[in-house]
Write a structure and sequence with these properties.
Blueprint: H1 2-20, H2 22-30, H3 35-71, H4 86-113, H5 116-123, H6 129-165, E1 175-181, H7 190-205, E2 210-216, E3 226-231, E4 247-253, H8 257-261, E5 265-268, E6 281-285, H9 286-292, E7 302-305, E8 308-316, E9 331-335, E10 343-350, H10 354-368, E11 375-379, H11 380-387, H12 389-423, H13 425-433, H14 438-471, H15 483-505
Parallel strand pairs: 4-9, 6-8
Antiparallel strand pairs: 1-10, 1-11, 2-10, 3-4, 3-7, 5-8, 6-9, 7-8
Length: about 500
């Protein structure tokens, strides 16, 4: 779509340039120059401009890619292989050449097919004669295309902003995460693994500034949780069909996990360290509790899980596991003391700088067992950032394309209005001589551009509808036809277009 806008923009500007050379073409044709020679000259100029633009674009791409890589995440896949090689450069240059030739076809065709008599009459016609209407029509198309692209970009950017402000069901700020695998060769018994994990928690809690410590088998927004089927015998929400055995996310945690992650307790209590002979317990999220106990009362209810009977100790808020913006499957939390996992992700909430705390964390793990390895030491905010990487990339790309379309539309409109003012200097001088005011002439020129912009905005509305259909699957928390976004984009485009019209209109004031 941006290439289409660029093509229309180039064709418009080339047509403006061609119209400014009416007198030259008329004299050339009168002196015997054939239409083929004029067409060749026009296409040669357009192709040369496109070639130079493509080469310049390739150079900018090389520098731009290096600049983007300098700020790109270090874990970006195949980061070292990202570059603009000679093949990409050739493609960019070729696209520039083809785009220039394609944009030059309209003015070349016009110069070839226009009769000499018509060409001579057009020299004296204000606004560019017959092909002035064509130039204005192309500006209308450009404004319409720019409106569609700007609306798409604005919607995706607003959607990404909603993602950033979404409540994921936990409090990620000031939480450091680290994965600690416990080798089964050295700690084959579950009791040995649990004792080692308890020592790790104590060492992490002893680090200055750490407020609480917990551990889990799967972090939120990573979609790493295992799934299992459960039943709630005797629950009022049972319906007597397959919905009574839902597939849930099964998450193994240690008692301090909920407090450390800031997951709200809604009913009952959190896990407590188990004592020998105590019953196995479960904590469920609000989604599962609402399904089976719509009126409340889930605490103490029995649950069938993998052949065992658990008792629901409490209900917590739903911490989003699949993504930041939507609730996922119902969640079942089980205590690590009851079902031991040898590899857990420890979480520590701290008042200190999380990056500055990393050396202390490594030292704490080494004190527990020098042979233990740790991985994925990073703040929880970075985990969320990874989950938002694709939406962020989409928002950045569409935002950049939209800004490019806005600039191109402003350039195209400026070129048409400036060319019109240049051609109509004689007419403006006559109007002034007859008593017209400079301000009235400025309003006349700006009004001409405003009519083009208004018509382009009107024509672009159906395009917004189809763009909204395409974007519906990637927008979060916002309608594809959000009236506030569409009104702001249209007003912004009209403002930029108005400035593009006003600048050449000011030239009228310089006419004596």
């Amino acid at each position: 779509l941006l290439l289409l806008v660029l093509g229309v923009n180039m064709a418009t500007l080339l047509l403006v340039r061609t119209s400014q050379r009416d007198h030259e073409f008329a004299i050339s044709r009168a002196l015997g120059a054939n239409s083929f020679a004029l067409t060749r000259a026009t296409l040669l100029e357009a192709g040369l401009l496109g070639l130079i633009g493509g080469a310049g674009g390739a150079l900018v791409a090389v520098g731009g890619t290096r600049a983007l890589l300098a700020v790109a995440p270090l874990d970006l896949p195949r980061r070292a292989n990202i570059s603009v090689d000679w093949q990409v450069a050739l493609v960019v240059i070729a696209v520039g050449l083809l785009l220039g030739l394609a944009a030059g076809i309209l003015p070349a065709t016009w110069s070839m097919r226009t009769p000499l008599g018509t060409l001579l009459r057009n020299v004296a016609v204000r606004g560019g004669g017959a092909h002035g209407g064509l130039r204005r029509a192309m500006v209308v198309v450009q404004v319409a295309l720019s409106l569609v692209l700007l609306c798409a970009g604005a919607l995706v950017i607003r959607s990404f902003d909603r993602l950033l402000s979404a409540n994921p069901g936990f409090q990620p700020a000031n939480v450091l995460t680290l994965r600690v695998p416990i080798p089964t060769q050295r700690y084959p018994e579950d009791a040995q693994a649990r004792e080692l994990q308890s020592r790790i928690e104590r060492e992490l809690a002893a680090i200055p500034g750490v407020e609480s410590v917990g551990a889990t088998s799967a972090l939120p927004v990573t979609d790493d949780a295992n799934q299992t089927m459960i039943r709630m015998p005797g629950a009022p929400g049972n319906r007597g069909d397959e919905r009574d055995a839902p597939l849930v996310d099964y998450i193994n945690v240690r008692p301090g996990y909920f407090a450390t992650m800031g997951i709200r307790l809604l009913e009952g209590r959190r896990f407590e360290p188990s004592a020998p002979g105590t019953a196995r317990e479960a904590v469920i999220d609000r989604v599962l509790a609402r399904q089976f106990f719509p009126e409340g009362g889930a605490v103490g209810a029995p649950m069938l899980y993998q052949g065992d009977t658990l008792r629901v100790a409490g209900v917590v808020d739903h911490a989003r596991m699949q993504n930041v913006h939507t609730d996922g499957r119902p969640q079942l939390y089980v205590r690590n003391d009851d079902y031991t996992f040898h590899t857990l992700i420890f979480v520590a909430r701290s008042r200190r700088s999380l990056h500055g705390m990393v050396p202390d964390v490594r030292s704490a793990i080494q004190r527990v067992d020098p042979q233990l390895a740790i991985a994925d030491v990073r703040p929880m905010q970075d985990v969320i950032g990874d989950a938002l990487r694709q939406p962020k990339l989409s928002a950045s790309l569409l935002g950049g394309f939209s800004v490019g379309a806005l600039l191109l539309a402003a350039m195209g409109l400026y070129g048409v209005i400036a060319g019109s003012v240049n051609r109509r200097k004689h007419e403006m001088a006559v109007r002034l001589a007859l008593g017209a005011e400079h301000g009235g002439l400025v309003r006349l020129v700006v009004g001409e551009g405003a009519k083009l912009v208004a018509l382009g905005l009107l024509i672009g509305v159906p395009g917004i509808y189809f763009a909204g259909k395409l974007l519906g699957g990637v927008l979060v928390g916002i309608s594809a036809f959000d009236p506030i976004t569409l009104a702001c984009v249209a007003a912004g485009l009209a403002l930029i277009a108005g400035i593009a019209c006003y600048v050449p209109a000011r030239r009228v004031a310089s006419i004596a």
